[in-house]
Amino acid sequence: MSVGIESVIDGVRLFKHEVFDSRKEQFSALAQGQSPQVLFVTCSDSRVVPHLITQTQPGDLFVLRNAGNILPPHGANHGGEEATIEYAVTALGTRHIVICGHSHCGAVKGLLSAPEDLAGMPSVADWLVYAEATKRAMTETHAGLEGEARLLAAIKENVIVQIANLLTYPAVFARHARGELMIHGWVYLIETGEVLAYDWKSRTFRGLARPVAEGSSA
Ligand SMILES: [Zn+2]
C-alpha cells in the first residue's frame, strides 16, 4: 500500500515540473514570508495529513508533529516543542492553536500498553511520561472501557491533557488569558474522515463547527 523512496523521489520531480511550475506566483509570494494564523499540532502518524484534512494551502498552517501530539510542560523537556510554539505565537502572531489527535494512534496505544511492550523503545517510554495524566484519567474516569472504545477515549483525554500542558507555556498562557489566542482540541477519525472537536462547555467531543466567538476574524 505504501510507496518506496523511488516513488517519493519521482513525486518530487513531478511536483517541480507539473505543480510548482503551474503555481509559480503562489510560491514566489510565499518566498517573501509567512503569516499562518493557525498552528497545527498533531501526531507523526503517516495517515494524518494536516493540509489534506483541512484542505489548506502552503503558508496556511504552521505544523508541529511528534509521536502522540505531546507537548511537554514548560521547563520539563529540552525538545523543540515549546520553542516551536513560542516562535509561532510570538514571531508569527499565530492566533489559533489546534491540537489534533487521531484514531488508532500508536503512541496512545503504547501509553496504555504494559511497560514490557516498550522494552526496546526506551526513548518512547521516556516521551510518554508527558502523557501520564492521560493514563491516570483512563484508570480513574474510564475504567470500564475496553478495546477500541478505550483507545479512542484515551486519544481524546490525551488531547485535553496536552492542552493543559500547552497552557503552562508562558507565551501561550498570557495570550490565551487576554483572549488573543484560541486553543482547539480535535480528534481526526481515519476511518470516517470526520474531525471531532472538544467543546469546553459540555466537556465532550462533538462534530466540528466554526468557533462562535470568531465573528469577523474568520
Ligand atoms: Zn498517533
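^ zinc ion complex. Strands lie at 38-43, 61-66, 96-102, 182-188, 195-199, 204-207. The chain is about 40% helix and 15% strand.
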